[in-house]
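2.7 Reproducibility. Because tokenized structures are sensitive to small changes in the input, we list the exact sequence used for Zn(2)-C6 fungal-type domain-containing protein, including any N-terminal residues retained from the expression construct. No trimming or masking was applied before prediction.
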Amino acid sequence: MLTATLDHIVHLTPPGSLQETAEQFRKLGFNVVEGGVHADGLTENSLVILRDEVYLELISFTKPPEAYPPSSRPRREHGEALKWVITAPTKRNSILPFFCGDLTDRSRRSSYMDHPCGARGIAHIRLVTAEAENQRRHGEPPISSTSTETKWQPSTLNGPRPPTLILSTPSDQEQYDFVFGSAKTTGKGLFRLRSGKLFG
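Resulting structure tokens (single pass, no recycling of outputs):
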């Protein structure tokens, strides 16, 4: 069953590169705030929080992937623990997306902010797969479906225009190279994320 609400999107960076990645996002016109080092010491993150209350989590591992538990508790500067639980692909080095359930009360999270680039929300997320039949393995009905592309509209917590989740087979050489190149171990993966000016 497809998740009904888009909460946040994880952008993984190599160990020790979080500050560099945060600066790259600032140069693109995003305001970036420090999220802190997680209480278990395994990761640290920074956040790009959009007006639709979806946020991009820029995260960096501090240990090898196999050392990571399925749940963790980061602490904010004042010491309050934040909680969540995740599902993860079974294969190591996977580029497949995963689901994360935030167990922290919404009032305790950082609030959204405006960005110099004008981005106010997520416009669409595209997942590309080599298998067309994968488009028919979800319980929630799509808003449109063809032999090569299926679309859903998950909600956000604060947005008049919902983002579009697109699951498709390769439609050009770039996507074909992605699926049968960098994603060849899985035959599918997150291809593109686009933000947009969704408010007026």
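Residues 121-196 form one domain.
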